[in-house]
Specification:
With about 210 residues, the chain is of the alpha/beta class. The protein has seven helices and five strands, in the order αβαβαβααβαβα. It has a five-stranded parallel β-sheet, with helices on both faces. Helix 2 packs across helix 7 and helix 3 packs across helix 4.
Amino acid sequence: MSRIAALGGVLAAAAALLVPAGVATADDCPDVEVIFARGTGEPPGLGRVGQAFADALAPRLGGRTMDTYAVNYPASFNFLAASSGADDAAGRIADMSARCPQTSLVLGGFSQGAAAVSMLAGVPPVGQRIGSIGSAPPLPPAAAGRVAAVAVFGNPGARFGSPLSSTGQFAGRAIDICSGGDPICSAGLDRAAHSNYELPPYPDQAAGFVAGLI
């Protein structure tokens, strides 16, 4: 082995020792992370809407790297448990803020997942509920400021006059998409309209908005 190669190995080892355990290096951190809460009844993961949104966003990032995080919560018909989704997303935001402070965080949710995201925005205020959906504390202002953009689909809060686009901590950096006739987010009566958010134009509409902010 040459002296130069040997010296390179020593320097690499020394650099590794300087990185505290549990702290991510720049190479470990994506440029963008999408934190998404799936809708009611969907299996664990991003859900069909979250995946469609992530797929539409990735090519708009100009070569920047992107990871996704599926919010861990039941997404069951026990809507009070939606608050655990808000808690899990808040934990992920705190974790990423500490480990990867340069990563742009994008928050999103569909249906019950959108309600969980609304809780983090402080919509409705703590102690109040949207229908039978639970409540959770909003993000502290510093943590909310780490969220670069928000995209929610079929948000129950929009039906009660609290769209995230204009209400709560994410106002101005959130897009709140409601399909025409969707009774979950509007006064419409077309129940099928709540099941088409993974189809055009919705993922591209959300992705275009988010890409413009990050």
